[in-house]
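Deliverable D5.2: sample structural annotation.
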Amino acid sequence: MNRVIAMVLGVFLATIGLSVVAQTTGAEAGIKKRLEERMPGVRIAGVTKTQFGGLFEVRTEDHELIYVDDKVTFLIDGSILDGNDPRRNYTQERLKQLVGFKYDELPFGSAFKIVRGNGKRQMAYFSDPNCLYCRKLDAEIAQMNDVTVHVFLYPILSAESVPKAKAVWCSPDRSKAWVDLMLKNTSPGAAGTCDTPIEQLLALGRKHKVDGVPTLVFANGDRVSGLRSATQLSQMIDVAALKK
């Protein structure tokens, strides 16, 4: 949705007030039925009445949020912003609740570690071995101090990504194999075959709507996608540790 429309909607919602709904009205089932009839290709996971002036939140199985009225006479596909502070995005806050990570619950046994210095600071990293920006990010990580980076193999970019990821996982030293691949473009040697967690990690990523790489997860559950400098990463790790 156009950002201007989102802001106008935010002003409207701020004007009518943000009273919390104490109980549902029983309209959710009717809304779900109407939407399924009118939009048969959309798989609806749930409908919930919001605190925003009669709007209902519709969650799809693809982890998208849309908003409707109780009669489904209109549909809003976009973000709800705070009219008093447009920097606050209620939709993004809700998505974080629904698909965000709890850092301590990440499956660290399905990752390998890159340790710099004393490794005291922490972050997690979903990466594809064929990702150019991931390679640039690894070069930034190599410049960092006192950090442990938990690398989760997430081969989603091409057909070649999966065998490369498996070769890294099946290497005797996964961390070295990864660094050699990403920084030196040296493929892992004959690592043989082994059981890998890749399918489970792909399922985890879909569940939490990890749509691209690199995706970084910090100790307080915040996550970002895309390339960051070593300085930016250090700042984000430190801020996340304070907010944990």
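Annotation notes: The chain is about 35% helix and 15% strand. The longest helix spans residues 3-16.
The annotation will be released with the project's public dataset once the embargo ends.
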